Amino acid sequence: MLLISYDISDDKVRTRFSKFLRKYGRRTQFSVYEIENSERVLYNIMLQIDAEFEKQFWPADSVLIVPISGPNEDKIVRYGYAKNEELDFIFV
Hints:
Blueprint: E1 2-7, H1 11-22, E2 26-29, E3 32-35, H2 39-53, E4 62-67, H3 81-85
Antiparallel strand pairs: 1-3, 1-4, 2-3
C-alpha cells in the first residue's frame, strides 16, 4: 500500500492532481490518498508526476509518497470513516 500526501498551493494544479490520484486509489483525507500498489503502479504514478505535475509545483509545494507493506500494513489502525470503509457489505 502507498499513502500519498500532498500540499499544493495552486487550486487548478491541486484539483488535477487529486483527480489523477483518484484513478489509483481512494481519498482518506482532503490531501491524503491510500493506494493499493505494485511496483508498476508506483512507477506509473512517479512517471506521471515527473512528466506532468512537477514542473507546475511551486517551491513550497510538496508531495510525499510513503510505501507501507508487509507486517507494517497489518498494524494500521483505523477509526471512524476509514474503519468502516474496510468492511465488506452485502446488500440483499
